[in-house]
Amino acid sequence: MSLTPRLPGSRSIFPYVFGGLFLIVLADSWRRAEVNPGIFFEPEGREHLWRFVTGMYPPELSWEFLELMVRPTIETIQISVMGTLIAVVIGFPLGLLATSTFSFQGILHETEFRNAGLRHGLKVCLYGLARALLSLFRCIPEFVWAFMFVRAVGLGPFPGVLAIGVAYGGMLGKVYSEIFESVNERPLEAIQSTGAGRLQIFFYGWFPQVLPNITSYTLYRWECAVRTSAILGLVGAGGIGQQIQISIRMFNFHEVTTLLLILFALVAGADYVSAKVRSLL
Amino acid sequence: MDEVRALRAGARDRTRASTYVMLALLGALFVWSYQGSEIDLGLLFSADGGGAIADYVKRLFPPDFSPKVVAEAVVGAWETLAISLVGTVLSAVIALSLAFFGARNLVYSGLLYEMEPRRRFGLLRRVPYLAAKAVLNFLRTIPEMLWALIFVFLVGLGPFPGVLALGVHTGGVLGKLFAEVLEDVDLQPIESLQSTGAGKVQILFYGILPQVLPQFISYTLYRWEVNIRVAAVLGFVGAGGLGQRIHIALSLFLEQQLLTLLIALYILVTAVDYLSAYLRRRAV
User: Fold this and answer.
1) How distant, in Å, are the alpha carbons of A32, B12, B284 from that of A20?
2) Which of A113-122, A165-174, B117-126 has the highest mean pLDDT?
3) Which of B32, B90, B136, B145 to mutate to test the interface with A (most CBs of A within 10 A)?
4) pTM of the predicted model as reported, rounded to 2 decimal places
5) 3-state SS class at A121
6) Per-window interface: A 137-196 vs B, CB < 8 A
7) Is the peptide bond before B214 cis (omega within 30 degrees of 0)?
8) pLDDT digits over B134-156, tens only?
9) Domain extents for chain A?
10) A70-280 carries CATH number 1.10.3720.10
11) Of A62, A123, A193, B161, which has the fewest beta carbons less than 10 angstroms from its beta carbon?
12) How far is B247 from chain A (nearest CA, A)?
């Protein structure tokens, strides 16, 4: 499958070795994951499936139920917006610090003596620290963050906001720093040659270059945040997730249908809004 | 000249005005969300809340590396890996079986069909396409965690519902991506095949599949990286793996074990990232 042409007869054995290994691992995983498709054909599984599918219809559209769902739905949107805002507040400064061309090398630091001892060391340390923090924020899943924040600040939408803020802050910071690293140096040099200071270079040469990219990525993350905030409720962090869990646990599948429809609408709405805003950029 | 200048100034004013409107809307959105989401940052930074968090962090250390806990972490990590692997394979199967119907150029329009006389059942021929798209959208829109909740109800606790949840949701995602790849296929090889008199099936196997397979593999590997992270939290709703153990450790205040499990998760995720990047380089 490689694009580089190989001579016939010099084919590597990699595909065979890999294929064999893959099959072994897959067989082992199959066993470990307790895969058992037969369960759908046993009486009990069939009954559950039947109960679920028939229970889904018709969706619960009674006025009282819909009225009850308004608050969690709005809450879901609000959590996603606030969570994304906090993620930007966390991700932007950390992303800047985690950019080598911002923190310790490149055009912004050219006027200083290279390796000007302590200051340079300090900057490199900050850079490393920012990277480590971002990676820590990112590698712990939103659900675990949500659970811990529920512990710290109690049930409700607030822990959801914090969980999205921290976890997405880590992701945003990483992507921001990648965008920052890819800044074109030419305009910066042009500005520098007019005698501009570092702040001016930053605001007139650097910032306008990255703004469209980071806005567009942030919007994309917000779309994801809508989805996430809809399910963080499973661990008690507000939004419609909590309702969905309650409805499934209570076997009220017609309510589940309604909630899924609300979720569809939310996700589609977020898609639409973010596409609209992106087209304005 | 003056006219041009005036026009430009007008355009500038308009963009400026729309920027202000957007910023004002954004500000209003933030205020509205701030009020609705019961944010209380004071709680985090007050002596009470901040102290509780600092206390919690302190209790995480040192991680519990006793043999029993480590063994549990390894078993959990292995199970998570198994769930993500089988789930991703299942998703690829689902995606492959639907994506070809979800690509317009394979179902009813484009080069493959230009030789046919004006079709009679024009609309009817779109039915498989629309149906495949609808199914893919449906699978994709329901998040993995909700699928997991549903499958836990259907097949009981354990890793199997996790596999199904991953497979079904990711199947929708991959199916959409695969269909897009199929629609973007380079037409030249297909035309030259067609000029040799190849039939549709032959074009599919010799003109289209060789083009799209590397991208299919690459997307599948990418989703595997995503799935390993998801598989790690599916346990929160009872679908096995590390997540279940993390959930237990969180619920029972076993902070030191929690840290061990989080370390295991970190190692697992990083390892899968590297492996997937390596495979992608080899395969594409």
Assistant:
1) 19, 63, 19
2) A165-174
3) B145
4) 0.81
5) helix
6) 139-144, 147-148, 151-153, 156-158, 160-162
7) no
8) 899 889 888 888 899 888 888 88
9) 70-280
10) yes
11) A193
12) 8
Residue that the structure tokens 């039947």 belong to: A50
Most confident listed range (A4-18, A114-128, A221-235): A221-235
Query: What pLDDT, on the 0 to 100 scale, is given for residue B170?
Result: 94
The minimal CB distance from A152 to the residues B52, B83, B265 is found for B52
Instruction: Determine whether the interchain pair B162/A156 forms a contact, defined as Cβ–Cβ distance below 8 Å.
Output: no
Q: For the residues A198-208, what does the mean pLDDT come to?
A: 84
Q: Quote the longest CA-to-CA distance of chain B.
A: 82
Q: With CA atoms as reference, report the closest residue to A81 among B36, B230, B140, B41.
A: B36
Q: How many CB pairs under 8 A join A and B?
A: 161
Nearest Cα to Cα of residue B127 among B142, B112, B108: B108
Tokens matching residue B201: 């099936």
HSE-up of residue B270 (Cα within 13 Å, Cβ side): 11
Gyration radius of chain B over CA positions: 26
Task: Please name the residue that has the structure tokens 């290994």.
Answer: A21
pLDDT value, residue A139: 83
Chain A residues closer than 8 Å to B81 by CB: 29
Under the banding of pLDDT at 50, 70 and 90, the label for residue A109 is low
Across the interface, whether the CB atoms of A147 and B269 are under 8 A apart is answered no
Convert the pLDDT of each residue in B4-26 to its tens digit.
676 666 666 666 777 888 888 88
Three-state DSSP at B114 gives: coil
Residue % of chain B over a pLDDT of 70: 87
pLDDT at A164: 93
Cβ separation of B82 and A144 shorter than 8 Å? no
**A95 reaches B (C-beta below 8 A):** no
How far apart CA A158 and CA A125 sit, in angstroms, is 33
